[in-house]
Design goal:
By secondary structure, this protein is mostly helical. Helices cover about 50% and strands about 0% of the residues. It has 4 helices and no strands. The longest helix is centred in the C-terminal third of the chain and has 15 residues, at about 50-65. It is globular and about 35 Å long.
Amino acid sequence: MDAPEFAEALVTSAPNRILWGTDWPHSQRYNIGDQHDTGELVAIIPHLLPNEDDRHQVLVQNPLRLFDFK
């Protein structure tokens, strides 16, 4: 299963239990000294979460609830 299909399955099954994150500083994919454009990862978010309500849930509401931000 490719990432978009996997993301869609996760969002469909439990949108209130998903967080977005990365493996920054991407140490397992790149050689020492290589740079990765984190913007590429951010740019794919609307493709993985095309529904604005789901995107807000995953990027804002879920982290607020998990980390008990006030």
